[in-house]
Amino acid sequence: MRLDRGITSVIIGIAITFGQPEIAVTLTAQDVSNIAKQITVVISGPKLGSGVIIHQQGDTYSVLTNGHVVDEAGTYTVQTRDRSTYEVKSNLVQRLPGVDLAVLKFTSSKKYNIATIGNSDAATEGTTVYVSGAPEPVQGIEARTVLVLRGEIVGTNSQPQEGYVLIYNNNTHRGMSGGPVLDENGHLIGIHGRGARDNDGQKVGFNLGIPIKIFTASKTGSNLGVTTQNPPITQVPPKSFTDPSSSVPLIGRPRTIDGSEGTAGFGCPGRRC
């Protein structure tokens, strides 16, 4: 009888172990920053901006960015986390109708991380978000460097234009347009692209992004096989992770981009950021 009871206890213990849900891993701000820097690219050319790697098929990678970042004719350069550069002709850029998004592709035999698509519907007021991108050079920061800025969702736009629904208080700067908006699990929930401004053209402290759901629901997103899902909690990256952006400057040069100069000296009249 004692043996039977012992076996029963073992069976119950195993059942409890397999029946318990997986414990979610909470990422630190540094963890999310490391994830962001792996998937963020720096875009240079007729205009400057940022982007995020969203898909890979063979040696072809797809980058999602803002339409206004790549809407001028010419050759654009995509720079990845390892400082490799890839040229993309503007006539090969695919722009989405009715929304400020575009997809450009580059070919490489190297292995790059792909963004994990999150649930932008869960980005409600108070949700922590991170915006990643490489601002244009300014005094004191002469080379473009990928920055990951933390903030939170403060609301949604009741009358969105070109897809700009998300409103957050992250302190973004010109050159970060097209960069990813990540949730606290490091999942892609939006694309950053605008800074709200008053009638004098001054930033008011709020910025806007396009929910990733708009892209995944589009024909372009469907053709790439990029879909909205409920991804698992991202595991904490190894402590040995090193980010090459910490010491090596990025390519790029100071340049006026869409909306970066306006009348009477005020910036971003088109509310680009």
Write the layout of secondary structure elements.
Layout: H1 2-19, H2 29-39, E1 40-44, E2 49-57, E3 60-65, E4 75-79, E5 85-89, E6 94-95, E7 102-107, E8 128-133, E9 147-156, E10 166-168, E11 180-183, E12 188-197, E13 203-211, H3 212-216, H4 219-224
Antiparallel strand pairs: 1-2, 1-4, 2-3, 3-7, 4-5, 6-7, 8-9, 8-11, 9-10, 10-13, 11-12, 12-13
N-to-C order of helices and strands = HHEEEEEEEEEEEEEHH
The low-confidence runs, each spanning 5 or more residues with pLDDT under 50, are 14-23, 236-271
CA radius of gyration: 21 Å
CATH class: Mainly Beta
CATH architecture: Beta Barrel
Average pLDDT figure: 81
Count of structural domains: 1
Major sheet attributes: 7 strands, antiparallel
> Which sequence of strands runs across the widest sheet?
5-4-1-2-3-7-6
Number of strands: 13
Distance between the termini: 74 Å
Number of helices: 4
- Coarse morphology: globular
Strand content: 25-35%
What structural category arises from helix and sheet content?
alpha+beta
CATH topology: Thrombin, subunit H
Estimate the helix proportion, in percent.
10-25%
